[in-house]
Amino acid sequence: MPYLAKPNIRYQTSYLSALAEYKEEGLDAGPPIFALADPPTFDRYVKDICGKVNNRSAIKSDPPPSVVWWWVEGSRYLGRISLRLYLTPYLASYGGHVGYDVRKSERGRGVASEMLKAALPLARSMGYEKLILVCEEKNIPSRKVIEKNNGFFLGYSVDGEGKKHLRFQIDLTGIR
After folding, report:
1. Are 14 and 36 in contact (CB under 8 A)?
2. If you write DSSP's letter for every residue of 142-153 in order, what string do you get?
3. Range list of H helices, the chain
4. What residue segments make up the domains of the chain, in order of their start?
């Protein structure tokens, strides 16, 4: 059964495979795969991901620090979800608190919905009472993930390129 885990070097092989899937789609997959194939480099990368988290009340930076979890099953990396510790004005309109992605080979099976569902109690335990989630209007799968997790539609925002974004709020006060 899949679960949220802190990024860890034990998922290196599967993570690199997921990066290759993202690259095949033309998506920004982060650091080059060849660089992360070296275990010490991958270990530093994982420590960097985990080390960018700080206190929500700390000095504001842009972009804000995030808590990152990987959705894994056994040693297989399925996806990633991150929780931004606070929002800048831009992120409040176009990014939200939560970002997630699922490797192509795992899409269409409810992975993102379950991953978000598992992250909500963690956000609540960190003191959040509500989360803002944003997706592009054309991203129907993401919209469904948010709505399945009780996302309440707040309205639209339009970015500088004319892309319409849907803004949602998830109330965490009843989540334990």
Report:
1. no
2. HHHHHHHTTPEE
3. 12-25, 33-36, 39-51, 89-94, 111-125, 140-148
4. 3-171
Please report the DSSP string for 3-37 in residue order: EEE---GGGHHHHHHHHHHHHHHT---SS-HHHHT
Q: What is the pLDDT of residues 45-102, one digit of tens each?
A: 999 888 766 555 555 677 788 999 999 999 999 999 999 999 999 999 999 999 999 9
pTM above 0.85, yes or no: yes
From residue 52, how far is each of 14, 45, 56 by CA, in Å? 23, 11, 12
Residue 87 is encoded by which pair of tokens?
């929002």
Q: Which DSSP letter does residue 108 get? A: T
- CATH number belonging to domain 3-171: 3.40.630.30
